[in-house]
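Hi U.,

Before I forget, here's the chain from the pilot set. I'm dumping it here mostly so it's searchable later in email.
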Amino acid sequence: MSTQNVVNPSAASLAKAAEAARKTGLPPVHLWNPPLSGDMDMRIARDGTWFHEGSPIQRPALVKLFSSILKKEGAEYCLVTPVEKWRITVEDAPFVALDVSRSGEGAAQVLTFETHVGDVVHAGPDHPISVVIDQAAGTPAPYVMVRNGLQALIDRKTFYRLMDCATEEDGWLGIYSGGAFFPIIRSDAL
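Structure:
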C-alpha cells in the first residue's frame, strides 16, 4: 500500500500558496522546480481571459495572483509553487499589453507597456518587441517580453499607436526603445 498523498489540483490551494510566497514583489518561480503534479483544467484565452474548469475567472485579483506564479518550461506553461507544478493551457501568450506610453524621441525613446494583469515593462534588450506574421491571414501578431520567457500579445489599438512612431532602418520598418531597434516588417513588403 502506497503512503504517497494523492493531490488533486485546486485553484484555491494554488492561490493560497501564491499569496503566501508573494509578500514582496513577484514570487521566485524561477527557483521553484517541483516535479509535475499533473494537468489542471485552466486555460488562458488569446484575449487574456483566464478560465478554470470552463468558467471565466471573474476576480481580477485572483487572475493577477495566478499570473504571478506562472512559469514557462519549454513550450509548456505551468502554475508553480515550491511543492506543486500544474500544467495549464495557454492559447497564445499569457498576457495582453493593453497600453503603451512613450518617453523621449527617435533612437532614445523608451516604450513602456502595461499588461492586463498590471505588469509594467520598458521595452529594450531585456524586454524585446517581436512580430510574427500569420502566413495564412497575412496579419501581424506583435509581442513584448514581460518576464522569464512570458510574453504579452500587444493588442490592436496599442500596435497601431506603436506604428505611428515607427521608423525605417536598414530596409526595415521598426521601432526603437531602450536603445534597441525592433524590426516589424520589411520596407519593401509595404
